[in-house]
Specification:
The complex is a heterodimer of chains A (230) and B (473). Chain A has 230 residues and is an alpha/beta fold. Helices cover 11% and strands 26% of the residues of chain A. Chain A has a domain of 126 residues. The C terminus of chain A is likely disordered. In chain B, 35% of the residues lie in helices and 13% in strands. In chain B, helix 10 links the parallel strand 11 and strand 12. In chain B, helix 14 packs across helix 17. Chain B starts with a helix and ends in a 13-residue tail after the last helix. The chains are: A alpha/beta (230), B alpha/beta (473). Chains A and B meet through helix 1 of A and helix 7 and helix 9 of B.
Chain lengths: 230, 473
């Protein structure tokens, strides 16, 4: 696989993405230069694609990713890897709001901090944040794991349906209907194994595993007859 | 005081007896004069039997009531407050039973950005209703019925159901804030994408699907635990305001390579401003869903007391598009309480490019039909009055996930009824259009209407019947 360069600059984003897709289709890996924090770079890329963005990117980088490997050299804006089905996205700097929003699978690895609502509405996959995750991270997530290595801001794991938020470091406050539980040793081993595979192995971490308290799963009754009074 | 007066004045005759003061002369004992009939009727302006029973229910439940169907607020104006004024001397009618009247409807072609705008044979399509709210059989029947008459259906928020994709020639994929089972391949299999920022039944509030309907299949599609009372978000997870949405729209266009139109569905609240902002954000089609819009489940007070009526929203939306120079570039779809082709024709005359019917299409399939009486009875209701979509115990199998109830839908028969309903609606529209001298339903205009009430005229700017002037403030 040879590496080819695509320059974003101030070209229309549609043309930039067409060129990225064309170079990938020819069997190349792609380096995108002069990214200028442009929005919607590398949206909906297919399995097997490999793209590296030199610089920072704007919103929705790697959005709807369908299996591509994407690396961002510096920072990423909102909603990186939004609705990703599978694949891998690495952000070497910071990531903005809603990282991994509604993603269903794959992995997002943020080396700095992630903004608010990281993993919001997430349906699967893993998000690793080496820094801190912002407020309301995991809001209304259904499934998947958010793993934060340097703490979590307020209202962590607010209104979880399901899924897990793992935090090493301080959690400023828990969100609505979430609770900290003692993880099983094999669960810790699974998280540590994932981290070790990325050069982040450290067995001394004290994990807080946060899950849904399930009090918002139902109104006061599951019984259909309770809803027939009108 | 009365005693003081008595001291100062004395009648020049004897005080009458109390019986005479009470008009008992010639009266009957059990019907005394002077007791207001309202004593018997109990007509408090605030504390009607309905409001009393509502408080009893709230005080027992400790939460709001939930139900399906649509608004029970009888103060809403209806399409019946408008009438058509067909061609007579100043205009020439077309031969209603013979001449052609075009119904072709293009959605999403105005911007020139979209490779494949939607081309529908009729200006009516099936509203977005989710698999979950509706059974899979109901979704499939709607798809086949709509396909037969050359129009589209919409997935609703539950993800793309394979039965529906198979059945629907043209299918809009709805992207709600919950993003259930959002999948790139589904986006690319869709003929259009609809971003939802609200719905007419409960604008400003997310969807609601009670646990009885969160079956294994529904839960699987939504990545939810089975049986939870699913209350969806109303804010999108990945953008906040209109400026961000503009970026989101570009993302969707990139993901689908500019092939399909982007719709935006909103509940009707401030359409004059909301529609202008949506048009600026770059959508191709705006769906304005009025307060009469139906739903599978909603807090009841939101159904009755939020949003503005469909007919009022259409005028405001059209004027907003005109003011921004976006008419012709952005298509406008009206929805909410549209029952017949007559209602639909009024929507087009008011300024809509197309209409969406939800509850009407369910009724066509058999909702509230007089069958399976014992199932209605079990819900404490009867055919014609049922609004128990929220329970998942739909007597005719439409709004349920119970297999034995769902089997009550015969998909081919239900599909054919939907097709005939849409055909009949279209015939009503074309007959009205031809009577008004129009060779296309899209040429219907506000001048073809007159208002039968001051409210309707004031709400819409339609001229009052007879006097031929719009009510002005």
């Amino acid at each position: 696989m040879s590496e080819v360069v695509v320059t974003a600059g101030d070209s229309p984003i549609r043309e930039v993405n067409i060129e990225i897709r064309a170079r990938l289709a020819e069997g190349n890996s792609v380096v995108v230069r002069d990214t200028r924090s442009r929005h919607n770079l590398g949206v909906g890329l297919p399995a097997g694609a490999k793209v590296r963005f030199e610089g920072s990117v704007g919103y929705y980088c790697g959005g709807l990713n369908d299996g591509a490997f994407i690396e961002v050299e510096r920072n990423a804006g909102w909603s990186t890897g939004e609705a990703m089905a599978t694949g891998e996205i690495i952000v070497n700097g910071y990531a903005g709001m809603s990282t991994g929003a509604s993603m269903r699978g794959g992995l997002i690895h943020v080396k700095g901090d992630a903004g608010p609502r990281c993993g919001v509405a997430m349906k699967g996959g893993d998000i690793i944040v080496e820094g801190k995750i912002g407020y309301m991270s995991g809001f209304m997530a259904h499934a998947g794991r958010i793993i934060a290595l340097s703490g979590a801001d307020e209202a962590c794991a607010d209104s979880l349906w399901g899924g897990e938020v793992w935090v090493a470091g301080p959690v400023e406050s828990l969100g609505v209907d979430s609770k900290i539980i003692e993880p099983e040793p094999e669960e810790v081993a699974s998280v540590e194994e994932l981290l070790a595979g990325r050069g982040l192995g450290d067995n001394s971490r004290e994990w807080q595993k946060i899950v849904s308290a399930q009090k918002l799963w139902h109104f006061e009754s599951r019984d259909a007859s309770a809803w027939l009074m009108i | 005081m009365a005693d003081d007066m008595k001291e100062k004045y004395e009648y020049p005759f004897e005080m009458p007896t109390e019986d005479m003061v009470a008009m008992k002369d010639g009266g009957v004992d059990d019907r005394p004069a002077g007791v207001p009939s309202s004593y018997a009727r109990g007509e408090s302006v605030s504390w009607t039997p309905e409001s009393i029973s509502e408080i009893h229910a709230l005080s027992r439940l400790g939460r709001y009531q939930i139900r399906g169907f649509n608004s029970f607020n009888h103060n809403l104006p209806t399409f019946d407050d408008l009438t058509f004024v067909p061609a007579t001397m100043t205009r020439l009618p077309l031969e209603g039973y013979r001449e052609k009247c075009d119904t072709k409807t293009i959605l999403g072609g105005g911007s020139g950005l979209v490779e494949n705008p939607l081309e529908l044979d009729i200006p009516i399509y099936i509203a977005s209703m989710s698999f979950g709210a509706l059974s899979a059989n109901a979704k499939a029947a709607l798809g086949y019925g709509a396909s037969k008459v050359g129009t589209l259906t919409c997935t609703g928020e539950g993800g793309m159901l394979e039965d529906e994709r198979r059945a629907s020639k043209t299918l809009v994929y709805q992207m709600t804030p919950s993003r259930y089972m959002l999948d790139l391949s589904h986006l690319r299999m869709a003929d259009a994408i609809e971003l939802v920022v609200g719905q007419g039944a409960k604008p400003g509030t997310g969807g609601l699907l009670l646990g009885m309907k969160v079956s294994e299949r529904v839960a699987g599609m939504r990545s939810l635990p089975m049986g939870v009372d699913q209350r969806s978000t109303v804010r999108h997870p990945d953008f906040l305001g209109a400026d961000d949405m503009q970026v989101k729209i570009e993302e969707l266009r990139e993901a689908t390579e500019y092939k399909v139109p982007i719709f935006l569905k909103m509940g009707a609240t401030r359409p004059r401003y909301d529609v202008a902002v949506a048009a600026k954000a770059g959508v191709d089609v705006i769906v304005v869903d009025g307060a009469e819009g139906g739903t599978g489940a909603s807090p009841e007070f939101l159904l009755n007391h939020t949003g503005i009526p469909t007919m009022t929203a259409i005028r405001a939306a059209r004027e907003a598009l005109d003011d921004c120079g976006m008419s012709g570039k952005v298509s406008l779809v009206a929805a909410g309480g549209i029952r017949t082709g007559t209602d639909a024709a009024k929507c087009l005359a008011l300024g809509a490019d197309a209409v969406m019917v939800g509850t009407g299409s369910l009724i066509a399939m058999g909702c509230n039909s007089p069958r399976y009486f014992e199932s209605y009875e079990a819900l404490g209701t009867e055919p014609g009055k049922c609004h128990h979509c929220h329970t998942g115990l739909c007597p005719v199998g439409i709004t349920t996930q119970e297999p034995e109830l769902e089997e009550r839908i015969d998909v081919p028969a239900a599909a054919e009824r939907v097709a005939r309903y849409l055909t009949a609606m279209t015939m009503e529209m074309t007959l009205l259009a031809k009577a008004c001298g129009k060779s296309s339903v899209h040429n219907l205009e506000i001048e073809d209407l007159r208002a039968l009430s001051m409210e309707a005229s004031a709400f819409t700017g339609v001229k009052m019947a007879g006097i031929d002037r719009a009510f002005t403030w």
